[in-house]
Amino acid sequence: MSIQVTSPVSRAFKARETGLIVIIATIFVVMSFASEYFMTAENLLSMVKSFSVEAIVVIGMTILLISGGIDLSVGSVTALAMVIAGSLFLAGLDPWLSSLIAIMACSGIGAVMGLMVTGIGLHHFIVSLGVMVIARGLCMLGTGGRPLGLFTLPLEFKWIGTGSIGPIPVVIVIFVVFVLVFDFLLRQTTAFRKVVYTGSNQKAAAYSGVRTQKVIFLTTMLTSTLCGIAGVIYMARFGSAQPTFGIGMELNVIAAAVIGGASLSGGSGTILGAILGSLLLAVVSSSLTLLNVSVYWQDIIRGSILLTAVTFDHLLMKRRG
To answer: How far apart are CA 286 and CA 291, in angstroms?
Structure first.
């Protein structure tokens, strides 16, 4: 009987993250020949900045997917954070206090969704779908459907969205901090390992002493809180609060997490993989724009990428089963 030994290199090449890195690198090589503007410092910096803030929401979605949940309201809740913070600022409140209240409001929305899922027994999909519509309606109601111009925001507040630390934009620094913190928590801490156990087999985790309902509640609340933080950063970056902002964000966020290895069935996924998935979508979007591909085709391509990732995940789960 022969014994097969799997080397660390072989295991690495089987990892989802390694495959994504290869795909992203391939696109970079191809686009460097296809467009003279792709590899310019301006385009690369713009591309990283464009996905950095959204990637904060991707982190929350990834953790929620690992626990077995899903949130379709992330785009609407992010926009609502902008509207709440912007409206309070225009009413005379300090922008930092306004932002804190907006983030707390988003946390409250997540808490309500968590209670409806764990207390009443409703499914994440239905609850978040309802909240998505309600939050977008509140955005329109609070602004009359018009963007709020926040031209008097102080420079020290705008700094979090437009400033730099040396040559590095602040939004990228914030993004990197969030990635490092949550990647460490998910890989190394007992509390976040319970998220994986809950998503893998909720009943078995409950029999093992894991308070699965609490885990689901907290992950739902965490996702909405990160939406609030992203909304505040977007407000500082754009200097406005747009009630229509974030339409379709849920597609990008879920696609990034699933492409990165987060299973819609729960129990698997990594922060690094999700960020690579987000980067892949940003690179594809930038490439299509530089190649003058119609925005309608871009939507079709992004949707196709999501379906491909979901299909791959489904087949992988069947093979493991």
So the answer is: 9
> How many residues can be counted in the chain?
321
**Domain ranges within the chain, ordered by starting residue:** 45-320
Residue type, 239: G
196: closest CA among 176, 215, 175? 215
Asked if 41 contacts 160 with a C-beta cutoff of 8 angstroms, the reply is: no
Give, in order, the Cα–Cα distances in Å from 89 to each of 60, 96, 102, 203, 234. Answer: 27, 9, 11, 46, 15
Sign of CA dihedral 52, 53, 57, 60: positive
Q: DSSP character for 72?
A: S
The secondary element (H helix, E strand) that includes residue 164 is: strand 164-165
Maximum Cα–Cα distance across the chain: 77
Looking at the domain 45-320, which fold is it? ABC transporter involved in vitamin B12 uptake, BtuC (1.10.3470)
What span, in angstroms and rounded, lies between the C-alpha atoms of 100 and 94? 10
The residue ranges of the chain whose pLDDT is under 70 are 1-15, 313-314, 316-318, 320-321
Say if CB 62 and CB 297 are below 8 A apart.
no
Contact 86, 149 (CB under 8 A): no
CB distance 96 to 79 below 8 Å: no
* Cβ-based burial of 244 (10 A; exposed 0-12, middle 13-18, buried ≥19): middle
Q: Of 226, 233, 231, which Cα lies nearest the Cα of 245? A: 231
Q: Give the predicted TM-score (pTM) of the model.
A: 0.89
Cα–Cα distance, 261 to 20 (Å, whole number)? 10
| Token pair recorded at residue 272 | 């690094």
Q: Which tens digit of pLDDT belongs to each residue from 266-293?
A: 888 889 989 998 998 888 888 888 888 8
Cα separation, 197 vs 65, in Å, equals 12
